[in-house]
């Protein structure tokens, strides 16, 4: 697995001229936020960065928001971004850490370990006084990328349903406490409120310093996971969220703690909360349907 899950702005600055370093702006906004990630990228991005479209890099035959594509389709996207199997990919987003962990996890899912997240993202880059560019990026030469697949890093609906009985995995939900307990509305209004029975809650934002936008130190990360009920080194964690994006932040946090085995429930609440046949826990402790 990746030896460098997190890199600093200074580290990246020193490698921008390295042709094997590929920087991806993976900014994504929730559907209830009136912002355009592609337009923001054109207005401001790290020099040489390319835009990774989380809404576009998915299984387009599936109506759910962010189901992973086939290895072949992912390889085409990666190659089109100028990425080869010997590239070091660095992902960032405009929030600090919100969506950048999604491509980090996807590259690992498809067998590419040389991938990192920029600590603090674009806010930390700018706070360090480092330059930004605007406009469309220069055309890139297509890379040579062959994808494999690591099924142990992903869970599907059938897996999570079976886990209700087997309890082999610990489901850890990255949504806010209000969304987890059903007292806050979902950004996708068609979804029910609540959470997967037996799951635990660790909002992804708890792993990030709100002032610097950087990931908290190792001791704070350990404390957050333990307070959420995770037995570090023992539990097999499956991260979930709204649509499989911020769940990857929890996987990144566990990777920083030395656990690269965390999986992601790809359908997440967009799938579980939209079905009439999946049980939920709501704030009153009642299960549905």
From TrEMBL:
One function term, GO molecular function aspect: thiosulfate-cyanide sulfurtransferase activity
Main location: cytoplasm
Protein origin, superkingdom: Bacteria
Location of the region described as Disordered in the Swiss-Prot/TrEMBL record: 269-289
One term under GO cellular component: cytoplasm
Gene3D superfamilies the record matches: Rhodanese-like domain
Rhodanese domain span: 17-134, 165-281
Keywords assigned: Cytoplasm, Pyruvate, Repeat, Transferase
Subcellular location: Cytoplasm
Pfam assignment, any one: Rhodanese
Catalytic function, reaction form: 2-oxo-3-sulfanylpropanoate + [thioredoxin]-dithiol = [thioredoxin]-disulfide + hydrogen sulfide + pyruvate + H(+)
PANTHER family named among the record's database cross-references: SULFURTRANSFERASE, THIOSULFATE SULFERTANSFERASE
Protein name, UniProt field: Sulfurtransferase
Source organism of the structure: Pacificispira spongiicola
High-level lineage: Bacteria, Pseudomonadati, Pseudomonadota, Alphaproteobacteria, Rhodospirillales
Gene from which the chain derives: sseA
